[in-house]
Each structure stands twice: as C-alpha cells, then as structure tokens.
Design brief:
- The structure is a single chain.
- Helices cover about 35% and strands about 15% of the residues.
- It is built from nine helices and seven strands, in the order E-H-E-H-E-H-E-H-E-H-H-E-H-H-H-E.
- It has helices spanning about 30-40, 55-60, 80-95, 125-145, 165, 185-205, 220-225, 230-235, 245-255; strands at about 20-25, 45-50, 75, 100-105, 155-160, 210-215, 265-270.
- Helix 1 crosses helix 9 (about 245-255), helix 3 (about 80-95) runs parallel beside helix 4 (about 125-145) and helix 4 (about 125-145) runs parallel beside helix 6.
- The radius of gyration is 18 Å and the shape is globular.
Length: about 280
C-alpha cells in the first residue's frame, strides 16, 4: 500500500502500545548489520534489511527470528540515491511506524587488505566512500524521521569508527604507534558522520527522536578478515582481541532501549580500551 506521511501529520504511537514497530538496518546483509538485524528481531521489531543486493537482503531477512509474527523483509537498492531512500522509508512504514533506524552501511577500500596511501586515492574512490558512508545515512534519516513516533521511543544509531577521533595511520612502514589499514577517505567520512550524528540529535530533539553513534575499533567480520593479522594491529588494543559483532549489537540494543532514554548526540566507543576518555 502507499503511505504518505508528512512532517506535520506523523502521529506518535501511545506509550505502552503493543503495535509492532519496524526497524531499518542498512548494510543489513553484512557482518555487523546482519548481527544487529538479528538482535532487533529478537527484541520484537519487524526488521527491514536494506542492502545493495536484493537477494542478499532477502536471504538475511529470511533468517531472522519471528517474534509475535513480525514480518521481516529485505530491500535492495543503491542507498547513495536519495530517491531509493525515499522508497525504503515508505516501504518500512507499510508495516508499522519506524521505531529504529540503524545506519550500518559503510565501505573501506583497501589494496589486498592494506592501506591505500592518500596520494594514490583517486577521485572516484574518494567520492564513493563519502557517498556510501555519509550521504546514504543522511538521505535515509531525512526521509525516515517523518515516519517515526514522537513519543520518545524512536531512535537512530549510526555506525561510526574509532578513526573518527584518531584519524587513520601513517604509511605502512611508519615508525610510530598508530597502525590502521583504513584510508584517509574512510576516516574523514566517519568523522563527518559523527558530526552529522551530533547535529541531527539537536534538530530531532524537538521531535523526541534520539540520535547516537557507535564507534567500534576492530571488529571480527569478513571485511576485517581481508586484513593481514599483524602484531602492530592488535598490539595497540589493551584487550588484545577484535570485538565480536554481537558486542556491537548489544550496544545498539542499549542505545535504543528505555535505559538510554536521556542519551542522545553521543558516540559510544567500543574498542577494547584502545581509545579512552
């Protein structure tokens, strides 16, 4: 069915309502996104798994647990296109108001798992990273907030990175401590997304929609599996291991819960003690 809800007409769902809420997870067919989708499904949300590939999104959605008959669905499309995000928001709202939006979509180009020096990073690669990591989350939030309840229960979580604060490392043979395989484009995009998170938390506070970020260090995902294990990598992390995707999903579950009802505009660092306050 067609759903047309404008900023002025969206209605809050009464507190305590048993109406199912939808949750959108972009990059939902990826390592972290799939785990977050599973956790949100377990929390009772009807999850829309959004990814570039429709078949992958459908497959991820089909594997989610169904609580109280929640209808999980896949959505395929290029999220760097604002029109596709408009379709995604309306698609999710067909089931119920959007209670949660998690922007887990992101890319980090590397060369054989290693850092690409800034002077070898072409225009197309730079623009693609910015489009996927910054523009796509912005486009979706701009469309989805119209379908989100204004009773204080709705929440947006953006996946940031430790690089948003640390920056990325020097050359592979640098003699100093910071060692990261990510390119400057990735670090810059996550810093921009962190600022976008803080800024939108101010604008959406009047609608009682919270906006937060989660900034992981290294996470054990297929993407990270392409990076050669180097003592310099884990030697920087006090806990001496990668995070598990489930630990990122746990943080998302906390930030969208009532226990985090007064938390907005913040970035929750999950990095094994690598970056401390």
């Amino acid at each position: 069915m067609d759903v047309t809800i404008t900023e002025s007409t969206v209605q809050a769902v009464p507190a305590g309502s048993t109406l199912t809420r939808t949750a959108i997870v972009t990059g939902g067919a990826g390592g972290i996104g799939r785990t977050i989708s599973r956790r949100l499904a377990a929390e009772g949300y009807a999850v829309v798994v959004a990814d570039l590939n429709q078949a992958a999104a459908d497959q991820a959605a089909a594997g989610l647990p169904e609580i109280d008959g929640a209808d999980h669905r896949g959505f395929g499309g290029d999220l760097t296109d604002s029109g596709v995000n408009r379709e995604l928001a309306a698609f999710a709202a067909e089931t119920a108001p959007i209670g949660v939006l998690v922007n887990a979509v992101g890319i980090s180009p590397k060369r054989n798992g290693r850092k690409i020096p800034f002077f070898e990073l072409g225009d197309d690669a730079w623009n693609q990273v910015m489009a996927v990591n910054v523009s796509a989350p912005f486009f979706l939030i701009r469309e989805a907030f119209r379908y989100m309840p204004t009773d204080g229960s709705a929440s947006i979580v953006n996946l940031l990175s430790i690089t948003a604060k640390l920056g990325t490392g020097g050359p592979a043979d640098a003699g100093f401590g910071l060692y990261l395989p990510s390119s400057v484009a990735y670090g810059a995009s996550k810093a921009a997304l962190q600022n976008l998170t803080a800024s939108l938390s101010h604008e959406l506070a009047v609608r009682r929609i919270r906006v937060n970020g989660i900034a992981p260090g290294f996470v054990q995902t297929p993407m990270m599996g392409e990076v050669p294990i180097d003592e310099r990598l884990l030697g920087q992390v006090p806990m001496k291991r990668f995070a598990k995707p489930e630990e990122i999903a746990d943080a998302v579950a906390f930030l969208i819960s009532d226990q985090a009802s007064y938390i907005t505009g913040t970035s929750l660092d999950i990095n094994g003690g690598w970056l401390t306050c």
